[in-house]
Amino acid sequence: MSTTPENLEANGLMLGAPPGALRDTTHGIDGTLDFERPAYPFGHRLKNCSIGAFCYFNAAGRTSAYRVRFGRYAQIGESSIIAPPEHLQTGFSNHPFAFTRPSLMPNMYRLPDFAALAPEDSDAPSYVDTVNNETVVGHEVYLGAGSFVRRGVTIGDGALIGARSVVTRDIPPYAVAVGSPARIVRLRFAEHLVERLLALQWWRYDLARFKHTLDFTRMEPTLEALEQLLAEGQLPLLKPDSFRLTRAAGGELSLRALPKPLFFS
Q1: Per-residue pLDDT at 26
Q2: Looking at the structure, do residues 2 and 67 belong to the same domain, yes or no?
Q3: For the residues 222-236, what does the mean pLDDT come to?
Q4: Are 112 and 157 found together in one domain?
Q5: Which of 55, 54, 53, 105 is nearest to 76 (CA)?
Q6: How high is the mean pLDDT of the chain?
Q7: Beta strands in the chain (DSSP E)
Q8: 32 - beta bridge partners?
Q9: What predicted TM-score, i.e. pTM, was given to this entire model?
Q10: How much is the average pLDDT of 19-46?
Q11: How many domains does the chain have?
């Protein structure tokens, strides 16, 4: 499939530039990007990430994310850094020459000075293989502007992270966390409502048909209505078309359809 901005948008990936614009908004995509439509990364730097339906990144600033699974309806504030690689701190040196591999930092190895010093390719586990590399930003998480999220952290569904917070440990669902390091100050809703929201998992369902009958700005009436619809079997699953965008070593992009949604399939 074509990877022109127009075709990517037609397949539900919004990178931000209008049709015919000269600016290349695909340059921030590295490795693979799996996404459910619609997804709104808006040209930010994403390396080996996946994005659930309706997840969007604030178009301003410059956000970087590395090997992160973003849930449906996640909202990422501008100029955030999510799961950057961590360096070895217990070895002789914490510089990459001591522990990296050509497959992990190919641009460093392009200069012969570094290649002469750093490890060669090997089937043996590298430092990267020994640490937790999976970072999860759950469904309907709100990540405030300028936030930092440590690699390996899971931010639970529905959580709110205050602007410029430093998240160094897991955050439970529907918690509100702020500060450096981020600390939990309260739940978004009363505990009994959080339990109902987690039981419902509303992001699993296609809510578009209810936009004229439900007021999504009202918490409890909407929750009660959706619970009733689910009990009656009237909530259809959201089954978005899903795709993989891949950047090859030479820089070329390719796009292919995935056989099923990224979540709940």
Answers
A1: 75
A2: yes
A3: 98
A4: no
A5: 55
A6: 93
A7: 29-36, 45-51, 56-57, 64-66, 68-70, 75-76, 81-82, 135-137, 142-143, 148-149, 154-155, 160-161, 166-167, 175-178, 183-187, 242-247, 253-257
A8: 246
A9: 0.92
A10: 83
A11: 2
